[in-house]
C-alpha cells in the first residue's frame, strides 16, 4: 500500500473543520503536511477533483462532499531575503494567518498588522485577497507557489499573475479548482508606515491617548475592535461577512439615493461607489432576525449565524431570502463572499 493511500480517511464529519459549524461528510479526507505528500495524493487520486480546505472560515457546505477533501497543514516560516528595509517571509499554506500576523508584529515587521484576527490559513489568504481596516493582502504579497492539480507540478505565481481585486483573485475565477497553494511570500517592512486611515482605529488611538503608535498598538486595537463587533466562531458559527459589499456605478448610486437619501457610499476608482452590504440588509429588515436555526448577527446584519444545529441548506435559504429582499428594495444583487460547496 502506498503512503498516500494510508493518509486518506473515509467518511469524515467536516463539522470541526468549518467555522459555520455545519455537519457535512467527506467521502475521503486527508490532512496534507508537505508538498511531497500533496503531489503523491494528486498522482494516486488523479481521477478526482479535490476540495482544498484551510481553516474552513470562508466555506459553506451545502451538502456532503462526495470526493477527496485535502486539509492543508503545510507548515513553516522562513526568511528568504533581507535588506536594510525589508524582510521576505515565506510561509507554508497551512500556517494560521493570525498567528503569522502576531509573529511578524512581535518582530516589528510591518504591513499586515491591520489584518490581525482574520481567521484561516496563509494558503487561503490570496484566494480572496483578504482585507480589513484599509489594508489588503496584495499590498505585501510578493509571490506564491501552487501545485497544478492536473500535472501535480509546482508553479510560481507573481503578484500580477494573481489578478487581485476586492475579495478576488484569479484563483476564485479562471483558475478556480485548478491549483493548490502551498506557500506564500510576503514582503514586510522594517520601517513600517502605519495605516490609520480607518476611522475606528483613529478613534481608539485617541481614546487610548497613544500619540506615537507602533504596529503592535495597531494590531492590539484591531483585535479589540473585531472582538467587540464580530461573533467568535468558536461560540457562534459564522464566516464573517457572508456577502461582498456591492460596488455600483455612480449613476446607480445616485438613483438609489433618490428614494433612500441616507444610503452610505464610499467613492472608488472609475466613477464607482461601494455600498456597505450590511446597511442594505439591515434596511431590508434582516438585522438580528432568526429563522429556525439560522439568522443574522444582532450587531452586524452582514454576518449570517448558525444558532445551533443548522444545515448548509438552511443557511443557503436564508441567504437567498436576504438577496431577494435587497434586490426588491434597492435593485442591487448581493454576491456571496463565502465559497459555496
Ligand atoms: C469571524 C470572521 C471574520 C472574518 N473577517 C474577514 C475579514 O476581515 N477579511 C477577509 O478578507 N475575510 C474575513 N473572513 C473570511 C476568512 O477568514 C478568510 O477568507 C480566510 O482567508 C479564509 O481562510 P481559510 O483557511 O479558513 O479558508 P477556507 O474557508 O478553508 O477556504 C476558503 C476558499 O479557499 C480555498 N482554499 C483554501 N486554502 C487553499 C489553498 N491552500 N490552495 C487553494 N485553495 C485554497 C478553499 O477551497 C475555499 O474555496 C472572516 C471569517 C470569519 C469567520
Q: Which structural class do the helices and strands define? A: alpha+beta
H-E order: HEEHEEEEEHEEEEHEHHEEHEEHEEEHE
Rounded to the nearest angstrom, the distance between the terminal CA atoms is 31 Å
Overall 3D form: globular
Structure description:
There is one protein chain. With 341 residues, the chain is of the alpha+beta class. The chain has helices spanning 3-7, 35-44, 97-106, 159-162, 199-207, 215-229, 250-259, 277-283, 312-330, and strands spanning 9-13, 25-32, 51-53, 59-60, 65-72, 77-82, 86-92, 131-132, 135-136, 141-148, 154-158, 179-189, 237-241, 247-249, 266-267, 272-274, 290-291, 294-297, 300-306, 339-340. The strands form 6 sheets. Strands 6-7-12-10-11 form a 5-stranded antiparallel beta sheet. Strands 1-2-5-3 form a 4-stranded mixed beta sheet. The two termini are 31 Å apart. The relative contact order is 0.13. The mean pLDDT is 95. Bound molecules: flavin-adenine dinucleotide.
Topology:
Layout: H1 3-7, E1 9-13, E2 25-32, H2 35-44, E3 51-53, E4 59-60, E5 65-72, E6 77-82, E7 86-92, H3 97-106, E8 131-132, E9 135-136, E10 141-148, E11 154-158, H4 159-162, E12 179-189, H5 199-207, H6 215-229, E13 237-241, E14 247-249, H7 250-259, E15 266-267, E16 272-274, H8 277-283, E17 290-291, E18 294-297, E19 300-306, H9 312-330, E20 339-340
Parallel strand pairs: 2-5, 3-5, 4-20
Antiparallel strand pairs: 1-2, 6-7, 7-12, 8-9, 10-11, 10-12, 13-19, 14-16, 15-16, 17-18, 18-19
The structure holds flavin-adenine dinucleotide (FAD).
Flavin-adenine dinucleotide is lined by residues 19, 51-59, 72, 93, 118-121, 123-125, 127-128, 130-132, 180-181, 230, 233, 238-240, 339.
Amino acid at each position: 500500500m502506498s503512503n498516500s493511500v494510508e493518509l486518506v480517511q473515509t467518511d469524515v464529519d467536516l463539522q470541526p473543520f468549518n467555522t459555520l459549524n455545519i455537519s457535512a461528510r467527506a467521502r475521503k479526507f486527508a490532512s496534507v503536511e508537505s508538498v511531497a505528500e500533496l503531489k503523491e495524493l494528486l498522482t494516486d487520486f488523479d481521477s478526482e477533483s479535490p476540495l482544498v480546505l484551510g481553516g474552513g472560515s470562508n466555506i459553506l457546505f451545502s451538502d456532503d462532499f462526495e470526493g477527496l477533501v485535502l486539509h492543508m497543514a503545510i507548515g513553516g516560516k522562513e526568511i528568504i531575503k533581507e535588506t536594510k528595509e525589508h524582510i521576505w517571509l515565506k510561509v507554508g499554506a497551512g500556517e494560521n494567518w493570525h498567528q503569522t500576523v502576531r509573529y511578524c508584529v512581535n518582530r516589528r515587521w510591518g504591513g499586515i498588522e491591520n489584518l490581525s484576527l482574520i481567521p484561516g490559513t496563509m494558503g487561503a489568504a490570496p484566494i480572496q485577497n483578504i482585507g480589513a481596516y484599509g489594508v489588503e493582502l496584495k499590498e505585501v504579497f510578493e509571490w506564491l507557489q501552487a501545485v497544478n492539480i492536473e500535472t501535480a507540478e509546482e508553479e510560481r505565481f507573481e503578484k500580477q499573475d494573481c489578478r487581485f481585486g476586492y475579495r478576488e483573485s484569479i484563483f476564485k475565477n479562471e483558475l478556480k479548482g485548478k491549483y493548490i497553494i502551498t506557500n506564500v511570500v510576503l514582503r514586510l517592512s522594517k520601517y513600517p508606515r502605519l495605516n490609520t486611515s480607518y476611522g475606528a482605529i483613529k478613534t481608539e488611538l485617541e481614546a487610548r491617548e497613544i500619540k506615537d503608535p507602533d504596529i503592535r498598538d495597531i494590531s492590539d486595537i484591531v483585535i479589540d475592535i473585531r472582538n467587540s463587533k464580530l461573533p467568535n466562531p468558536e461560540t457562534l458559527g459564522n464566516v464573517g461577512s457572508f456577502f461582498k459589499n456591492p460596488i455600483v456605478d455612480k449613476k446607480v448610486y445616485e438613483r438609489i439615493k433618490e428614494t433612500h437619501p441616507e444610503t452610505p457610499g464610499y467613492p472608488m476608482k472609475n466613477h464607482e461607489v461601494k455600498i456597505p452590504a450590511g446597511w442594505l440588509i439591515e434596511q431590508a429588515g434582516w438585522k438580528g432576525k432568526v429563522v429556525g436555526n439560522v439568522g443574522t448577527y444582532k450587531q452586524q446584519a452582514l454576518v449570517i449565524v448558525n444558532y445551533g444545529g443548522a444545515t448548509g441548506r438552511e443557511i443557503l435559504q436564508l441567504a437567498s431570502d436576504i438577496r431577494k429582499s435587497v434586490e426588491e428594495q434597492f435593485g442591487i444583487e448581493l454576491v456571496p463572499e463565502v465559497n459555496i460547496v
